[in-house]
Amino acid sequence: MPSTYLSFRCSVLWLILSLEAVFIVCSYFLFSDRHILSYSDRTITYLAWQDVSHMLIFGFGFFLMFLKRYSFSSVGFNLLIIVLGVQCSLLMQNVSVFLKEGKLKGSLESLIEAAMSMVAVIISIGAVLGKTNPMQSIVMTIVEIIVFCMSRWINTYILEVSNHVSMMHVHLFGAYFGLAVSSRFSEPSPRAEKNASTPKSDLLSMLGTLFLWVFWPSFNSALIVEKHKVIFNTCLALAVSAVTAFALSGLITKDGKFRMTHIHSAALAGGVTVGYAAESIEYPWIAMILGLLASVMSILGSLCLQSCLHPTLKIHDASGVHFTFGLPAVFGALAQVLLCVIETKSLSFDCEVILNIGAICFTISVALITGLITGLILNLKLLKPIPVSKYFEDQMYWEFPHLAVGF
Amino acid sequence: MPSTYLSFRCSVLWLILSLEAVFIVCSYFLFSDRHILSYSDRTITYLAWQDVSHMLIFGFGFFLMFLKRYSFSSVGFNLLIIVLGVQCSLLMQNVSVFLKEGKLKGSLESLIEAAMSMVAVIISIGAVLGKTNPMQSIVMTIVEIIVFCMSRWINTYILEVSNHVSMMHVHLFGAYFGLAVSSRFSEPSPRAEKNASTPKSDLLSMLGTLFLWVFWPSFNSALIVEKHKVIFNTCLALAVSAVTAFALSGLITKDGKFRMTHIHSAALAGGVTVGYAAESIEYPWIAMILGLLASVMSILGSLCLQSCLHPTLKIHDASGVHFTFGLPAVFGALAQVLLCVIETKSLSFDCEVILNIGAICFTISVALITGLITGLILNLKLLKPIPVSKYFEDQMYWEFPHLAVGF
Amino acid sequence: MPSTYLSFRCSVLWLILSLEAVFIVCSYFLFSDRHILSYSDRTITYLAWQDVSHMLIFGFGFFLMFLKRYSFSSVGFNLLIIVLGVQCSLLMQNVSVFLKEGKLKGSLESLIEAAMSMVAVIISIGAVLGKTNPMQSIVMTIVEIIVFCMSRWINTYILEVSNHVSMMHVHLFGAYFGLAVSSRFSEPSPRAEKNASTPKSDLLSMLGTLFLWVFWPSFNSALIVEKHKVIFNTCLALAVSAVTAFALSGLITKDGKFRMTHIHSAALAGGVTVGYAAESIEYPWIAMILGLLASVMSILGSLCLQSCLHPTLKIHDASGVHFTFGLPAVFGALAQVLLCVIETKSLSFDCEVILNIGAICFTISVALITGLITGLILNLKLLKPIPVSKYFEDQMYWEFPHLAVGF
Q1: What is the DSSP string of A317-328?
Q2: Per-residue pLDDT, C1
Q3: Rounded CA gap, A282 and A285, in Å?
Q4: A contact residues 201-260, partner B, Cβ 8 Å cutoff
Q5: Contact pairs from chain A to chain B, CB under 8 Å
Q6: How far is C234 from chain A (nearest CA, A)?
């Protein structure tokens, strides 16, 4: 048994290496003509890239660090998945743009879009945090990023959704893909001692949340030319949703105490929601109300989903991605359509509105269907799914030379 | 008793929600005309906003995290206070500019000023860290930010102090307001076991200090157009004050060991001091000398104040805001006036100098008087001040689901 | 004995203060004419400065924090050394430019170069981490930064290496200087209980690695005008080297588990290697292959060096700077020469190539020779080297008032 397991482990490592070889060979063929690579030199592009990469590496790395025995894996595998996924996403990105337009985008611009697409994968990974082995995570990453890029391509070029809005669907896609995958994994026992946080891990997770919170305006404005309005609206929405998170967290817990996980989820909900419409919001108070409603939805969602919906559907949502990213994203996407209708003052639903709603439904359906299929694939014997008793544990994947000394 | 306490807790939550409602309604009326909102699109504004928000959220959040049982509250309530205060400050800001000039500033610019004003509140909160309940913190935040905005308005428009210098008074105001409030709170017993740090909390606090230290040049240059000179001078002052902090810390402790809290305070003192005059310093060595003197003042201040002044006045300064921000700010403000006099080479004190000194005195007096009044209000029975034995403790405000499992 | 030790400690503090006085006096004479100070106001300069300072303060501060009883010193002395060294480096920088060109560079530009030069010192400090007292660290800092600035001056002005490449030699110089110094210190016993990490310290070190990793593209592009290409190439190289780090780490440990220190070293190796040639790499796949080879070299290097080379040479490399920075830098420097040859398609080695190879050899030899001499000086009785039993310990330098309460 150990020897077969060891050989399985080695196969993970060879998988990683061969994936990397494939990426290098692909980029050899794709970027072979130096004339199609354009390097614009705008400072703002560089800034957007930096902020997005900080969000991915620090923000999500630490956001997912709340499990008490899974901190190495949270940070480490987050890095592994991002660096693998970004390369795959960059190739997909460039292939799709090349097919359509015959030339490549500026390199750093396409790197930004590749990195933003990876948010879908990280959200999905969050939904099954602690339940997948590295092999499963890598397969899931590659499948999801390819499907997301194709779904976004259809949204942008066929349903003619704007580039920014089609990128914002990343939250929708990530959350529902993750939930669908999660439904195929066995549920941990509710009293699992390892499925818990410590004050220290909660603090590190709070550090991650603050990183995400602070960089969210950059994320929402990364693909937009006139950034300042988007940034202003996102900041207000985030502020209001953080305030509301505190108030509601106290109201729904007994004793009126605050719960850290509520703050984590609800403070970010405003940013997710306002992302869709930020460009078209004319008055700050609209952004503030969106932030407030997103936060309410996220906290009530966490209450209802955990007590009603999930026990019925047997879906265990490890880091609450449904109410942190899923619900606020649905709400934000609908709000954007509504604001669009109000602004054009047309009573009749016109073509653009229908296409936008179509894109939302399309994204969710693709996410659910491919998520289910991916979930089934991941639980094949071939990929050696880990038993429930070994969930939420670092020690299978990392060397701890210090353990001998006393932890 | 528990039931009245629970109902009190709920009243905090309703206070938060109704404050938020007030802010939304106010911004509905204030920002109702889209033509008065201008969105400049300068990258540099966005950068300044980001740096200031990083300072507030990470820097101060972690800087105040040195108490061993108060880390959740330090980070959490810091976020709550900032998001509430920034909205209030933004409204005050825009009302005051609107009253004077009939139009609003660019939105992100006013957000930067709103966020910078919040530094006053966070410094004051630092002075009573661990002694206030959320209700008291919120009342204090709202009162202080309103008073500070009014005091700054008088400084800018009546005493005709430059916009930058009047914003730098934020340190002065925050420190003396905090001290005055603190004087109305009972002192913890000097041997209070909870009023202590652990190496871990000291490290997190050091992380916060480093954040503040690194972003201080951005803070000092946020309102200035020609930033590079200010940044260069602030960097040099910070470097010299950090060096001096190490040397003096070793000299005044027995055994010649370094004390972390000395480094925290004195390394920042140079940045506070040089903030006032950074624009008018012609030679780098002046900035370096200011940094050195600020650090000396901060460390000697910590020695004298803790051993002589505070026992007499019965003021317990929880995070040493007096010698970290107060004294260096007084020194910096005076140095700026002096440099101004030297540069104009006029022997007679001219009008500008008198107005500048007047602004310093005015700011300190307003801070002390309103601080005292606020301190009295906060200790009304109505706000249920917490007993001394419950100081410096998280557990009253936060759920710790993991406590059952073993901390 | 304690009293002589105390007086020795005081002499450290007076050394710091007098160094600071020297720096202030020097900058008084150097920057006395305000007309030679130019302040350009390009946003991009400010950004580059910020990113480099973040790398130094956070990145290296936390990267070096893996020792379980040395976290205060890692962060604290890192700050002390940087603030001292940057001032010295800034003076050296300006003197050398002034001697050659008769005027000073823009101030922030020279600050960036000064800060980047400090990377050499921090790498060397990493090689003897935990073995030097503050006096030794300070002497080493001052000697190394002066030698490095002189070596860079010769590289730039005599060997006519480009400014960017001569700065990239910082890794080479730092690693080999550190190794040479380290060879003069006694080796700790291999079972030293304090020479170990805990999961917590490993996580903090990972945080530092991530900081370095994320800011590495800024470091590589700081001195280059057309940044976007360099950033793009560095990002790809870093991504590939992180992927390879995971795969190889699993392959060379027994059980196929990942080792955190492998990830730390190898993920950065790609950035070090690609730094030299980033500007002249035309196709992304070249950067990717460089990243892959750098990572392979770093991990195999760690395996070979620790098991073969170091036991022979009796060099204990505390944080593995040889295979993290040294080997990848040698490889990167050679790769840059090779790419240069290929591009010019000249079969005969021309003058530029010879000068570049000369610069590499010159830098390494200067580093080794001056490092050996510095190592001998540091072990003079005068500087009171600490005994092997006191290695890797904070408690000699820092007050821990909380120890009484229970750690």
Answers
A1: -TT-HIIIIIHH
A2: 42
A3: 9
A4: 202-203, 206, 210, 213-214, 218, 226-229, 231-232, 235-236, 238-240, 242-244, 246-248, 250-251, 253, 255-260
A5: 149
A6: 11
Radius of gyration (Cα) for chain C, nearest Å? 21
Note which residues in 291-320 of chain B have CB less than 8 A from chain A.
none
The tokens for A78 are: 């987050």
Contacts of C210 in chain A (CB under 8 A): 57-58, 61, 75, 79
DSSP assignment, residue A404? Answer: G
Q: CA-CA distance, A123 to A182, in Å (whole number)?
A: 12
C-alpha to C-alpha distance for B8 and A279, rounded to whole angstroms: 41
The tokens for B126 are 């630092």
ipTM of the prediction greater than 0.90, yes or no: yes
* pTM of this structure: 0.93
Q: Which of B243, B286, B292, B343 to mutate to test the interface with C (most CBs of C within 10 A)?
A: B243
Hey, of C46, C74, C198, which one would you mutate to test binding to chain B, going by the most B CBs within 10 A of its CB? C46
Q: For the segment C300-336, what is each residue's pLDDT rounded down to a tens digit?
A: 999 888 788 777 888 888 889 999 999 999 999 999 9
Angstrom distance (rounded) from CA C318 to CA C329: 19
Token couple for C232: 């793009």
- The three-state DSSP-derived secondary structure of B72-117 is HHHHHHHHHHHHHHHHHHHHHHHHHHHHHHCCCCEHHHHHHHHHHH
User: Where do the H-state alpha helices sit in B253-387?
Assistant: 260-277, 284-304, 310-313, 321, 327-344, 351-378
pLDDT digits over C118-144, tens only?
Answer: 999 999 999 999 999 999 999 999 999
Residues of C in contact with B232 (CB under 8 A): 39, 107-108, 111
Q: A380: buried, middle or exposed (CB in 10 Å: 19+, 13-18, 0-12)? A: exposed
- pLDDT beneath 70, residues of chain C: 1-6, 33-41, 103, 105-106, 346-349, 401-407
Q: Let me know: does C172 contact C329? Beta carbons within 8 Å.
A: yes
Query: What CA–CA distances, in Å, run from B291 to B239, B247, B274, C39?
Result: 8, 14, 7, 21
Chain B within 8 Å of A168 (Cβ-Cβ)?
Answer: no
Phi, psi values for residue B97, rounded to 5°: -65, -40
* CATH class (in words) of the domain with range B17-31+43-383: mainly alpha
CB neighbour list of residue A299: distance below 8 Å, 6 or more residues apart: A244, A245, A248, A249, A252, A262, A265, A266, A323
Chains sharing 3 or more CB pairs under 8 A with chain B: A, C
| Distance (Å) of CA C184 to CA C180, C316, C368, C385 | 7, 10, 12, 11
What is the number of other CB atoms lying within 10 angstroms of the CB of residue B226?
11
Answer whether B226 sits within 8 Å of C39, measured CB to CB.
yes
Identify the CATH number of the domain defined by range A45-187+197-384. 1.10.3430.10
Find the residue in B nearest to C402 (Cα): B198
CATH fold of C43-382, please? Answer: Ammonium transporter fold (1.10.3430)
Domain range summary for chain A, segments of one domain joined by +: 45-187+197-384
Of B122, B112, B117, B107, residue with least CA distance to B151: B117
What residues are paired with A38 via a beta bridge? A106
The minimum CA-CA distance between A260 and chain B, rounded to whole Å, is 8
State the helix-helix crossing angle for A134-157 and A2-30, rounded to 10 degrees.
30
N-to-C CA span, chain A? 29
Question: How many C-alpha atoms does B263 have within 13 Å on its Cβ side?
Answer: 27
- The answer to whether B295 touches C108, Cβ cutoff 8 Å, is no
C46 and A CB contact within 8 Å: no
Preferred mutation among B4, B24, B37, B74 to probe A, highest tally of A CBs within 10 A: B24
Q: Please tell me which of the candidates A255, A257, A283 has its beta carbon nearest to residue B31.
A: A283
